[in-house]
Amino acid sequence: MIFLKFLFTVVAITGVMASCSDKGNDPEPGGKGELILTASTDEITADGIDAVTFTVTYDGDDVTSSAVIKQSNGAVVEGAEFVATAAGTYKFTAEYDEVTSNEVSVKADISLTAIVLSVDKNEIVNDGIDAATFTVTLGGEDITSSSELRVNNTPMDGVEFTNRTKGRYTFMAVYEGRVSNQIAIQVVDAELVLSIDKSLIIADGEDAAVLTAMYGGLDVTDEVEVRNNQNKVVPTTLVFDIWSNPNSYLMQYLQVIKSASFSGYCSKEGITLFAPRFR
Domain residues for 126? Predict the structure, then answer.
């Protein structure tokens, strides 16, 4: 009976010691075990999205979260994942407990990466100033300067598109014989706006009000015809003498733009100018 109690006590103490010696998931540093780096794949697409995931084991235990994974150029891989934006072969090693792992190579291939054409806006106005700007990328790398941009399959000059003719235009990029996605741009009518620098002048023959006509971002003052509420053509610089009628004058476009490229456009709002007699 005494022997059984002694045996039970020895077993219990042994069990407590064993539980207290549990080291957790990572092995205790200080040894010189085998450190192994493995990759989920040896080839990725160089598009900045496709990723390779690394795992580091030390004597069979997963120590990925505690290890430092580096490229051959010394750059540290964050989060045990790596993506590439340029084609090439990348080499990696891991370090843990002053031990360096084997070297792993991953090839990044750009040959299957799509050429992507993007634009900052899909609609512009036909004033010849408002512009859409294009960018071409391959695997996250900007190749705009090396690409040919085409509008309706006709080569473009530069990366900006402006036009004075409304309509729908289709664009694509060509790089080393490869064709990008297509993008459509809609060119729409701009608004013709008549403005005046002041709404009240003295009819002294000297004080003047100046009219300005803008079509989108284009100043077309010299190309418009302005008529008043009596349907008479008036100049864009208005001066009244002391014999002028003190009533209001409504400035409104009836025959707006003389040039063919703007023919038919009219301002939506008129302008009232009051010119009292000078005393």
Answer: 115-188
Q: Which residue has the tokens 């990723």?
A: 51
- Specify the pLDDT at position 31: 56
In-domain check, residue 11: no
Examine residue 265 and state whether it is found in any structural domain, yes or no: yes
Give the range among 18-22, 56-60, 171-175 with minimum mean pLDDT. 18-22
Backbone angles phi, psi at 20, to 5 degrees: -75, -20
Kindly state whether residues 261 and 197 are assigned to the same domain.
yes
Q: Are residues 200 and 179 in the same domain?
A: no
CATH of the domain at 134: 2.60.40.1080
Contact of 161 with 128, CB cutoff 8 Å: no
pLDDT higher than 80, residue 259: no
- Please indicate, yes or no, if residue 29 is contained in any of the structural domains: yes
Residue 194's pLDDT band, with cuts at 50, 70 and 90, is confident
Q: Are residues 174 and 226 in the same domain?
A: no
Share the mean pLDDT of the chain.
Answer: 79
H or E element that contains 264? none
Beta strands in 30-97 (DSSP E): 35-39, 43-45, 51-58, 61-62, 68-71, 81-83, 88-96
Q: Give residue-wise pLDDT tens across range 115-154.
A: 899 999 999 999 999 999 999 998 778 999 999 999 999 9
Domain count along the chain: 3
Q: Look at residue 268 in the predicted model and tell me its pLDDT.
A: 65
The more confidently predicted of residues 225 and 155 is: 155
Alpha helices in the chain, H assignment, sequence order: 2-20
Element of type H or E holding 257: strand 249-257
Question: Are residue 226 and residue 165 in the same domain, yes or no?
Answer: no
What tokens appear for 92 in the block?
């990696």
Closest C-alpha to 234, from 242, 244, 224, 247: 224
